[in-house]
Amino acid sequence: MREKSRGNASDRNACRLPGFGVIPVSYSFRNLWTRRLTTVLTAGGMALVVFVFAAILMLAEGLKKTLVETGSWNNVLAIRKGAVTEVQSGIDRAQAALIETQPEVSSGPDGKRLLAKEVVVLISLLKRGTDKPANVVIRGIGEQSLALRPQVKLLEGRLPRPGSSEVIAGTSIAGRFQGGGIGETLRFGMRDWMIVGIFDAGKTGFNSEIWGDADQLMQAFRRTAYSSVIFALRDSAAFDLMKQRLENDPRLTVEMKRESEYYKEQSEMMAKFLTILGLSLTVIFSFGAIIGAMITMYAAVANRTGEIGTLRALGFRRSSILGAFLMESLLLGLVGGCIGLFLASFMQLVTISTMNWQTFSELAFSFALTPEITLLSIAFSLVMGFVGGFLPAVRASRMNIVEALRAG
Amino acid sequence: MPPPIVSIEHVCKSYRRGSQIVPVLEDITFDIPEGEFLALMGPSGSGKSTLLNLIAGIDAVDAGTIRIGGVDITQLAETDLAQWRALHVGFIFQFYNLIPVLTAFENVELPLLLTSLSKKERQEHVSLALEVVNLSDRMDHYPSQLSGGQQQRVAIARAVVTDPSILVADEPTGDLDRKSAEDILELMERLNRESGKTIILVTHDPRAAKRARSVLHLEKGVLNAHHQAAH
Ligand SMILES: Nc1ncnc2c1ncn2[C@@H]1O[C@H](COP(=O)(O)OP(=O)(O)OP(=O)(O)O)[C@@H](O)[C@H]1O
Ligand SMILES: [Mg+2]
User: Fold this and answer.
1) How many other CB atoms sit within 10 Å of the CB of residue A96?
2) Do A306 and B111 touch (CB under 8 A)?
């Protein structure tokens, strides 16, 4: 072993290599594994927080996705200037006719203009099973409304005949509201309306609507104006110029939006609200989890005082000790994050309905897990691990070698 | 005479207990030649461990200098001192102080993580060190799967794996039965005789001291006698 001495002299110069003197991750990992019960309990607390965190973000994301997918980029929605939603909007027949004649409006294969004048009203219907009322959007549609929304497909029955008191309902209405199923009748606008068909609109907000003939609905609700005019663009790129021209036209008092933008705006406030609510809730919960991690890590440091003294005596620096204990609590956080995320991923199977706060109508959607949410949740769990483990790790690194060895 | 590997001059050390200052070592001066096997003896509380800790660079003197291999370790900054220990000191503790979650192999490898050796070189060094202590067949065992004597042999392998300038051992046989203690002492003697390791051994056991080339007595913080054992 004598000949190794020569190697040692050069070691002195090479001692600042990256990764030099780092205590292996397996040391931190195996210590967690050695006390698996404590690890699981502590990680469980963090998992719970990450679950809530991820679930709320998934909720906001699901809502956004549903509303954004509702609209199409190539469709233009015209509503009254200043109106935030179709429900508040009104466009009279003359203005609607003027929009219809614009050259940017596309035509279908049959030569007819791909444009629909629609009316949107809110009615209150009773939910199945509970007798609780909730608001539902009734959309009066035109001949081209379905052509403008290729994502809407008739699932059962047939379309309403023009000029009749017949309606079709989205799948989430049919399932959740009394009288919403095919063959049943609904009473509103002082008339009975027969459900002659059920349509599926995928994951879009239309699924929570009831559609009928626009003229019939206007009569029933004594409306003289449409709510909105929707049309497809001949050339999608022409939108900005057309918007500028029509919004400045003195004969019109309208605001033009791409349909997808319109629904995205609607989703944003609620998604933001949910996100802020979720973050505040989880930050409060996370204090509990962080304190749990801190207690566990302080105990680990106390139990391994002699070990820390030994490592320091062997030549590991304070920073190596700090790193090893931080790594341990980061791993603890990671375990919690993975468990929480795993549980949260099952929420994707759940569909819930909530109030669309902008239209005050019911909207059904599901939790959506995205790569961003996955990353955020893992990052959040790591932050919890870091914050919980920091002070214990500092205590470990500050120990006096001789005292640590005597204590161990 | 070869130059001393350890040269201690006028070292003083005291501890503070509350407002009281307890002197432990008072003006200690002595040299240890290279290749020495020194036993440090004395009654409990006489300051043996304190002196050993100072030589090993894990405690700081109040006054005086400690030169080891020409380096005054009392002048080194903390991180430099840590690195110096990694390269020049091999520790053998009374309670072995192996890391329970690491295997025998990994425990021995630990000090090599503080060198620039490659993984393959580390592997070679560890295998060699485990061979020296005759535990090659136990390298995948965890400390809890080994007897006290075997654990102490792993600890000795860990102490010699970096080929340090000095080996310090604080009552290395204090927790062992007679037979295991004899094995450990024999191993240390062999390291001294065959590999020329400089060893400083703190012990209460006269049988252990007999193995040493020389014995130093510490009495209430003062060096008392310097017997040259017959060898
Ligand atoms: N960190 C400390 N704080 C206060 N006093 C200390 C400290 N370390 C050691 N001492 C005191 O210094 C004196 C010498 O201690 P030391 O451990 O060096 O003795 P020792 O000779 O090794 O004894 P033993 O044979 O019992 O191990 C003792 O009186 C002890 O109480
Ligand atoms: Mg002692």
Assistant:
1) 20
2) no
